[in-house]
Amino acid sequence: MSALLEVEGIETAYGSSQILFGMDLAIDAGEAATLLGRNGMGKTTTVRSILGLTRACRGSIRFRGERIEALAPDRIARMGMALVPEGRQIFPNLSVRENLLAFAANRCQQRDAWTLERVYHLFPRLQERQGNMGSQLSGGEQQMLAIGRALMTNPYLLILDEATEGLAPLIREEIWQCLSSLREQGQTILVIDKYVQRLLALADRHTIVERGRVVWRGSSRELAGQPELWQRYIGV
Known about the structure:
- By secondary structure, the protein is α/β, with parallel strands linked by helices.
- The protein has a domain of 117 residues: P-loop containing nucleotide triphosphate hydrolases (Rossmann fold, 3-Layer(aba) Sandwich).
- It contains ten helices and ten strands.
- The strands form two sheets. Strands 6-7-8-3-9-10 form a six-stranded mixed β-sheet, with helices on both faces.
């Protein structure tokens, strides 16, 4: 069976500044995968290229068997990708409930579709704050809302860029528990984050990026056995 997402040899630049140099990535359906590396090494650019937000100038990207590197971002989203972006980017002048309902769509015709009630079950705090404006939420609550908003599109692939960046330890733990629950439910996930120990427990496979190139890929067991990689490429 082919991978849900296949990225092969993509090169991406911002003007004359090339960021990605032959990036490869593959994620199977139902799998949790990571992109690891220090800041500025090409992780977010890889995600932007996958989503069509920054066009790759070379290489191919396939999603569910279809070439997507030339498609517009809205078309790619409708095919079943959802992003929880760095910085959350929720609507500050909409309530929690309105933020969630604005994105509600079962585009992929999922049997057990994500609904308002199901998101509230995953994040009870959002139900408590459902009448609050986005601007009235804490950083952790905004991240919960950003994840809930993405899930409301019922995606095949959920991408989280800096999943727990800047969050208090207790809230960060709640996000990790949420991601573990999603994985157990069969949700395919791609995570960018710096907490390698938590990612080892969550993910099936890992890809380490250095200066726009893949320098290592392997399983959690393999990565756990090579702590020197953490020091060299991730800075842990």
